[in-house]
Amino acid sequence: MVTVAETTCTVKRFWTFSRKMSIRPSACDDVVTLPRPGAIRGRTDHDKQVDVTRSRLGSGRASVARVAGIVALVLFLLGLLLAVIALTFSVEVSGSSMEPTLHPGDRLEVDVLHRKDINRFDLVEAAEPDNGAAIVKRVIGLPGDQVKIRSGDEGARVLVRPSGSRSTYVVDNPAWGDQLAHDAAVCCTADGTNGQEEWATIPDGSYWLLGDNWSRSTDSRSFGFVTQGGVKAKLWFRILPRDRFGRVRTDARLVRTAQAD
Predict the structure, then answer these.
(1) What residues form DSSP beta bridges with 124?
(2) Is the dihedral of CA 154, 137, 209, 141 positive or negative?
(3) Rounded CA separation 11/33 (Å)
(4) Of 78, 137, 195, 217, which is the most buried if we count CB atoms within 10 A?
């Protein structure tokens, strides 16, 4: 049989639950807290699926982070390797014989694969015939060409007759500027050096090299022709300094002249 007191407590619990979803202390019993609605139910399949999805997302983010870290490390090591290779297979310019094209401290990549494929006005690293010292110069004369330096009222002029041609050309190298106008030196003797104003024929497998800084260059005017074996590499790409990074521009050209010998 239900007593009046028990009925009163039941009513109080219902009233309190409906207002605040919990049973406050009453005179009937100790504090009782009911779980939030829905918590008394078991976990549904949907809840489990949500947890699985969250777990997969977390695992996916961790995998992406690991892959990104590996890629960053590989790129760093690759960049470091390329830098080492670039510095190893390069030559640093010393001296002022190639100014204004090249300056002391400039570093250029060496192209050893095409060192036998030399064209007129290429920049090359070569060994000086007299002592084997490394030099950087510009190719002016090719095998079979005739070369000569003439001195006149307008100063010195570098003349070239390409192999197999009777036409005479003047070398127009903007890098020389007005230095030739103040030079009375003549060339060439049979070995391609200064001394007399005569045509010199470049032997097969040899080149005639000049510096871009006309008055401050020790070149073929001093040591003569350079053999193909003395050419170590072609130089056409500058890697340092960074503000001049890129292909080295060449503005030199041959200009045909009607002037007699």
Answers:
(1) 137, 234
(2) negative
(3) 16
(4) 137
Averaged pLDDT of the chain: 82
Q: Which ranges of the chain does DSSP label H, i.e. alpha helix?
A: 4-20, 45-88, 220-223
- Residue pair 130/219 in contact by the 8 Å Cβ criterion: no
Per DSSP, the three-state class of 174 is helix
Each residue's pLDDT tens digit, 16-74: 544 544 444 444 444 445 555 544 455 565 555 655 566 665 666 777 778 888 888 88
Asked if residue 194 lies in contact with residue 184, where contact means CB atoms within 8 angstroms, the answer is no
The distance from CA 158 to its chain's CA centroid, rounded to whole angstroms, is: 35
The structure tokens 């008055």 sit at: 215
Please compute, for residue 23, the number of CA atoms within 13 A of its CA located in the half-sphere on the CB side.
17
Distance between CA 120 and CA 11 in Å, rounded?
110
- Provide the whole-model pTM: 0.70
Cα(230)–Cα(151) distance, integer angstroms: 30
For tokens 């095998």, the residue is 143
Answer whether the bond into residue 241 is a cis peptide, omega within 30°. Answer: yes
What type of residue is 109?
A: E
The DSSP string of 150-203 is: EEETTEEEEEEE-TT---EEEEE-GGGTTGGGG----B--TTS-BSS---EEPP
Q: Using CA atoms, how far apart are residues 84 and 223, in angstroms rounded to an integer?
A: 34
Burial of 192 (0-12, 13-18, 19+ CB in 10 A): buried
Q: What type of residue sits at position 148?
A: K
Q: What's the angle, vertex CA 28, arms to CA 26 and CA 33, rounded to 5? A: 55
Q: Which of 196, 187, 122 is nearest to 157 (CA)?
A: 187
